[in-house]
């Protein structure tokens, strides 16, 4: 009897441990400065990425490059205890490709080209600080299987990508996704009103996620 209650007690303790919110390392404060600079650039996206393009203009991107809040939320549900850092790495990988594709379609003298190249430069600045502020082994940690699959698709040579994996998206919509997911994944640097509604039940807190299942 004593033994039983002891194991119940232990089990209870273990469950408590499993259910307690996972502590997520806060975005290092040093990232907030370059992120806010990038955010400033992104606030002009309508002007440069919509008005200077023909109506309904789209570019071809990989389906995994259409990376929205819903994709992030799905991954969080699929992979238990998914580390924010992994999603942040994925965000960099996705948007590096997105920016490259946007810039590639713009002729040298396109009126929005200086804007796009500055955006890319600011993105690189954020990435530089990101890499510097985390130990290398943390940035190289193995990815969960489903995330690795996405990653492999993103880094595929474009002539190997099957036709069915391409999507057409407007430059503005791609930058909208870029911006919203940034507010979500680096929420410590942005006021909570910016971190989109759909992103509010996250922060790697399994209790909240479980409550939604
Ligand atoms: C981010 O940009 C938006 C405009 O798109 C602005 O309202 C907001 O204050 C900016 N946030 C920060 C933290 O700089």
From TrEMBL:
Q: What is a single Pfam family found in this protein's UniProt entry? A: IL34
Q: What is this protein called?
A: Interleukin 34
Q: Does the keyword Signal apply?
A: yes
- Keyword set for this entry? Signal
The record lists the lineage as:
Eukaryota, Metazoa, Chordata, Craniata, Vertebrata
Q: Name one GO molecular function term.
A: macrophage colony-stimulating factor receptor binding
Share an example GO biological-process annotation for this protein.
positive regulation of monocyte differentiation
Write the signal peptide boundaries: 1-24
**Which Gene Ontology cellular-component terms appear in the entry?**
extracellular space
